[in-house]
Amino acid sequence: MFEFIKNKKQSNNNNSQNNKHEVKKNPNQENNSTNLTTSLEKNIAMFKNIFKDDGTIVFKDMQNKYLKQAKCCIFYIDGMVSNEIINENIMRPILASDLSENIDADNLLDELKNKIIISNSIGTETDINTILKSAIYGDTILLLDGFNKVLVINSKGFPTRSISEPDSERIIRGPREGYTESILVNLSLIRRRLINPDFKIKFKDIGVRTNTKTCICYIDGLASEKVIKELERRLDEINMDGILDSGYIQELIKDSPFSPFDTVGATERPDTTVAKLLEGRVALIVDGSPFVLTVPYVLAETFQ
User: Who is most buried in 1, 27, 271, 277, counting CB within 10 A?
Assistant: First the structure.
């Protein structure tokens, strides 16, 4: 069995120490340091400047006819959202509702959040970088005049590949479901097989520019805390512009880069992942990849 919990080679330690002085700075953190203001016009101008030369960004001004204070604007990325959700659950309630009745105008943002907008996931946010990540990932952002915070409304509607049997792991008998490129779909395939509150998920963004969503999955009480912490440490050390597939991470976290044997497992089958989780392994799901990684990996798995 290859030992997953061990220190990296001294050469890797030296390289990591040298790289500390060469860490890339996130350009978003440099360019998006401006804070939100209470001026709707200034906030719109700021986001338009951030998304300049981007033809997919859509801004829509709105004004409730019953309440003059309800002057707002939403923006989203075309192609990443559901137009039906925006039209029926966001725009129609704001424009058609009589906000002059039973609404606290001084606390209008929370009133819109709790009483007007129809959404299963809606929150307030002030951090610019978090707002941008949410918008790019398919959420709708609502700016309201007089408030220096925004509403982040779940409106994701981007297309994903349907679930099918993976070509690389076809079987004669058993489930025919395989992972897709959507991290949420892949998580649902695992959750359906693990109806247990001990199944835990930790999200982490990796990639200076891509901010790729990943999640660490394990069963509390079965997985080793040392393995979980070691995996988190190795993920935290990854410093590159983009993660486009789980294979990137697999090469960066494995124990022996020059070993002819795998030290990190990979599968396209959710039933295989669940079986390994029940054995105390830890899984890593990467958004955009149908291959889920598992650690630690034993030699016997190579011949299965």
Answer: 277
Q: What is the DSSP string of 220-284?
A: TTTS-HHHHHHHHHHHHT---S---SHHHHHHHH-S-TT-SS-SSEEES-HHHHHHHHHTT-EEE
pLDDT digit string, tens, across residues 73-91: 999 999 999 999 999 999 9
Cα torsion 159, 47, 151, 33: sign: positive
CA 44 to chain centre: 25
Q: What is the pLDDT of residues 82-123, one digit of tens each?
A: 999 999 999 999 999 998 888 888 899 999 999 999 999 999
Angle, CA 40 vertex, CA 124 and CA 211 arms, to 5°: 50
Q: How far apart are CA 127 and CA 283, in angstroms?
A: 30
Which residues, including other chains, have CB under 8 Å from residue 104's CB and lie 6 or more apart?
111
Residue entry with tokens 């829509």? 60
Q: Could you list the beta-strand ranges (E) of 38-167.
A: 57-63, 71-77, 122-125, 139-144, 150-154
> What Å distances lie between residue 52 and 44, 57, 292, CA to CA?
12, 9, 36
pTM of the model: 0.80
- Look at residues 65, 51, 64, 61 and name the one whose alpha carbon lies nearest to residue 142: 61
Q: What are the CA-CA distances from residue 203 to residues 32, 187, 239 (Å)?
A: 23, 12, 17
